[in-house]
Amino acid sequence: MMLKKLILRGMILPLLLITSQSVFATVILSFSPNTQTILLSGQASVNIVASNLQNEYIGAFDFDVSWDNSILSLASVSFGNALGGGSLSLQSENTNNGLGTSNLAESSLLSSLTSLQTGTTNIILATLVFDALSVGQSVLNLTGNISGGGFLGDENGGILATSTNPGLINVVTTSIPEPETLFLVGVGLLALFGLRRRNGCNIKLTSG
C-alpha cells in the first residue's frame, strides 16, 4: 500500500508542476520596436506590448516609463483599446519630461474582456511618440506601481506575474543608408571600376 502511494505521488507531482506553470505564466512587457534609430530632427513611435499571454486577460495596468531626458522628450501618449477605452475604462497619464518619466495606468470597467482580448494574442497597451532632442542613445525602462511592484492585473483583480524587456532609441545626425541602398551603391562602384579598367586596356592596346 505504501509503495502504491509513493507511485501515485510521483505521478501527480509532475502534473501539478505543469499545471502551475500554465496558470502562473509570466506575461512579458516590452517595447516594439525594441531598437530603432532616428534622425535628430525626427520622432520615434514605440508601442508597449504585453505578450506570452496564456489564457490570461489583462484588466488593469500601472507602470512608469523612463528615458534619458537629455536625448528624448515624450510628445504624446495614446492608450490601446484592449481594456475598453473611452467610457469603458479609467485611464491616467502623468508625464514629467524634466525627469524623463511618465506614469501610465488604465483599469477596465467591463465585467468581461473576451470580446476585446483572446487570452493569447499580444496586446498593445499604449503607444508613445518621442521627439529627439540631442544625439545619443536612450534606454527605455518600465517600473511597476501595483502593490508589491506589479505591472498588470487580471480581470478578476489578481496580479499577473510580469517580466520586462528594455528598449533603445538611437538618435543620429545623418540618415543611415538602408541595406538595399548600400547594395545598389556597391554594384554601381563595381561597374564603374570595371569600366575604367576596360577603357584603360583599350588605350594600351591602341597605343602599342
Could you walk me through the main structural features you see in this protein, from its secondary elements to its overall organization?
25% of the residues lie in helices and 41% in strands. The chain is of the alpha+beta class and 208 residues long. It has a single domain (27-175), classed as Immunoglobulin-like.
Helix amount: 10-25%
Q: Quick check: average pLDDT? A: 83
- How many domains, in number, for the residues? 1
What is the rounded distance between the termini?
106 Å
| Annotated CATH architecture | Sandwich
Kindly provide the radius of gyration, computed on alpha-carbon positions and rounded to a whole number of angstroms: 27 Å
Question: What is the highest CATH level, the class?
Answer: Mainly Beta
CATH topology description: Immunoglobulin-like
The chain-level structural class is alpha+beta
The general outline is: globular
Got a strand count? 13
The main pleated sheet reads as: 8 strands, mixed
Q: What is the beta-strand fraction?
A: 35-45%
